[in-house]
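Box 4.2: Ligand-aware structure prediction
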Amino acid sequence: MLQKSHHLKREANLIGGEWVAAGSGKTIEVTNPANGEVIGTIPDAGVEETRRAIAIAHETFQTWRKTTADERARLLRKLHDAFMDNQDALAELMTLEQGKPLAEARAEIAQSAAQILWFSEEARRVYGDVIPSPWGDRRIMVTKEPVGVVGAITPWNFPSSMLSRKIGPALAAGCTVVVKPAVQTPYSALAWGVLAEEIGIPKGVINIVTGDAKAIGGELTGNPLVRKITFTGSTPVGKLLIKQSADTVKKLSMELGGNAPFLVFDDCDLDRAVTGAIAAKYRNAGQTCVCTNRFYVQSGIYDAFVEKFAQESRKLKVGSGFDQGVQQGPLIDDKALAKVEELVGDARDKGAKIVTGGKRHELGGTFYEPTVIADATQEMRFAKEEIFGPVAPVFRFDKEEDAIRLANDTEFGLACYFYTQDLGRAFRVSEGLKYGMVGINEGIITTEVAPFGGVKESGMGREGSKYGLDEYLDVKYVCIGGLGL
Ligand SMILES: NC(=O)c1ccc[n+]([C@@H]2O[C@H](COP(=O)([O-])OP(=O)(O)OC[C@H]3O[C@@H](n4cnc5c(N)ncnc54)[C@H](O)[C@@H]3O)[C@@H](O)[C@H]2O)c1
Ligand SMILES: O=C[C@H](O)CS(=O)(=O)O
């Protein structure tokens, strides 16, 4: 099964540089979503292992924080190189546990490496200030210092790149980390520990604990030695972690749920809009936080868009992520499949027209046909609920202001997209949309150089870019007197 990645696969937790089992000896099975086969086990760890990891991370922080920015930058650069040297092996491990096509897994490893490279550079640019003092006998300085031990909790849909946006800035800032990956996709995260060891990142800087999410999360959010929680996942869990972190007033970064609108105006380049729609809808089988959840198409181009979008959707090759040319893999599990079927059934019951797809794929398991649904209305559940699957509801609108109002009619505000060739409309609509990220005539906008994050109930803080590092730094004001000036 594993041709290239066996040396990267660890069925243990990494605590203080030691690969260990759960104290109870309990394990959790990990399965391949493409066929349900068990591909291995991981420790079913809990409070005790997490507490030990936090204590070691705190102890390690006392020395790691004193390394120079240059030393940390060089280690991150070596980690970047290790990721790229092992790109195929890491991608194989990811496709095995997550199901995405190998090409998408390779792209995710490249994006993970790009994040690490970015923060290897940002590490050396943590500038402070010297501020003109209002007192003649005193001087004023501002410095930035690492927050300390970071608790990082990540989702299954991008098991490596979501981690890179946390470990990259955390290590660049001089923090240490305790990671809890999703139990569905632990091996991509544990491979970080293997590579960190290989390139010489000191023991205790990166610690990885797998198992009981509530127990591990409860310790990470409740333990006063943890000074920051960075979470990527659903909004309900994010809200819970925010509440649990309140008692010890932790610094928080929350990358939460989305409900992305995709607006198509009459004046758009139709071919470009359909290409963008395919990319923004079906990546990772629609299981991304920035996937389009709602297509709003202006009346004048509605029929042409639906016809071409459905035609292109039918061409997508569905299958195992390891099969040559596959463009859409399985959904992560039966629960995800059931949710998609519920939302499609609800729409059908409320009068929607299934233009293509609308049912399980003939491959069986958790494979689902790429689906385009016309005549969607705001009364249908997927107008408000994150689909997280390869289903594209297409709503109709007439006026520009209606499109903006409908697009904003959600508690989420992560990513949005629209297609127009009118420059004035581009500015009016971009400024009218309440979202953290906007794609204009583009369906894929993620990059390490730009701030990734949302507003409203899609989260707080930003990852990547020059903004991402501040999330791991505390600002310190120093007033110096007694200088005899
Ligand atoms: N904003 C972003 O950048 C981004 C990126 C990827 C996914 N997401 C969102 O994540 C969701 C899908 O991912 P998911 O199903 O893994 O989300 P999830 O919230 O169920 O799980 C995310 C992580 O939280 C852990 N977790 C669950 N309950 C917990 C608890 N009580 N305490 C501590 N940890 C807990 C899980 O084990 C997992 O590691 C979607 O809503 C998607 O939009 C957002
Ligand atoms: O699922 C959310 C990811 O952040 C998607 S992306 O790869 O960053 O665009």
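In the box above, the bound molecule is LB4VBGO6. Residues 157-158, 161, 288-290, 446 surround LB4VBGO6 (ligand 2) (CB under 6 Å).
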